[in-house]
Design a protein that fits this description.
202 residues; 3-stranded antiparallel sheet; 5 helices; 20% strand; 25% helix; Beta-clip-like; alpha+beta
Length: 202
C-alpha cells in the first residue's frame, strides 16, 4: 500500500506515469508497505503464463528475497526509478522516505533493490553517467541504502505514520526496537535474491 498523500500523474510520453506527493511527506515516513492485497506469484506460475501476461508481470513486479514476484495492487507499481531515489526499501517489507518529499514532488525508488531479472534501461539523470540498472547492482549499493535507511529511522517515531499498522507482525517488534535505538537495523542484503545460487542448486 502506498502512502495516502500521493496520487498518480502523467509525466510525459517517454516516462508515462509516476507517483507524486500531494502533501509534505517528511523524512522517516513509511511511503509504501507490502500488505495483504498485494499479490505474491511464484516463479513457476509466472513462467507458465502467456507471454503477454509475463511481460506485464516483469514490467510491474519486483522480486522478494525468496524469488517470488510481488504485484502491487495500487499505484505503488508506478513508482519510477531514480539513482537519487527519495524512497528506499528496508528489510521489513516497507519503503521509507530518506529525505523530505515536498508537495508536487515525485516519489522514486532505486530499481537496483528490486532483484531485477534483466538490465533496466533508464533515462539520463544530471550528475550520473549511468543509464542502466544491472541485476547485481544490489550487491554494490546495499551498504549505501543501509546507511540512508538507518539515518531515516532516527526520525521514524517523530513523524506521522499512516502505514505503520500494515507492517507485518513478524517485523513490527524489530522495527520498533530499531526506531528507539535499542537494536541495529537489519541490512537490505537480507532481501537479495541470489538467482545464481538457485541455478547452481537446481
Amino acid at each position: 500500500m502506498v502512502h495516502p498523500d500521493t496520487e498518480l500523474r502523467f509525466v510525459n510520453e517517454i516516462i508515462g506515469y509516476g507517483v507524486f506527493a500531494t502533501k509534505f511527506i517528511p523524512k522517516g515516513t513509511i511511503t509504501w508497505v507490502v500488505d495483504e492485497l498485494d499479490r505474491r506469484l511464484d516463479e513457476a506460475y509466472v513462467l507458465s503464463l502467456d507471454k503477454l501476461q509475463r511481460d506485464h508481470i516483469f514490467k510491474y513486479c519486483f522480486r522478494d528475497r525468496n524469488g517470488d514476484y510481488i504485484m502491487c495492487w495500487d499505484i505503488g507499481r508506478y513508482m519510477n526509478h531514480s539513482f537519487r531515489a527519495n524512497c528506499i526499501s528496508t528489510a521489513y517489507d516497507f519503503e521509507i522516505a530518506v529525505r523530505d518529499i515536498y508537495p508536487g514532488e515525485e516519489l522514486t525508488d532505486d530499481y537496483a533493490c528490486f532483484n531485477l531479472d534483466e538490465p533496466f534501461e533508464c533515462l539520463p539523470e544530471p550528475g550520473f553517467a549511468k543509464t542502466k540498472v544491472m541485476p547485481d547492482d544490489f550487491l554494490l549499493l546495499y551498504p549505501e541504502w543501509d546507511r540512508k535507511v538507518a539515518n531515516a529511522m532516527n526520525y521514524f517515531n517523530g513523524v506521522e505514520q499512516p502505514l505503520k499498522k500494515f507492517i507485518s507482525s513478524k517485523f513490527i517488534d524489530k522495527v520498533n526496537a530499531v526506531a528507539t535505538g535499542n537494536e541495529r537495523l537489519d541490512s537490505m542484503l537480507n532481501c537479495y535474491y541470489n538467482r545464481h545460487q538457485k541455478l547452481v542448486t537446481a
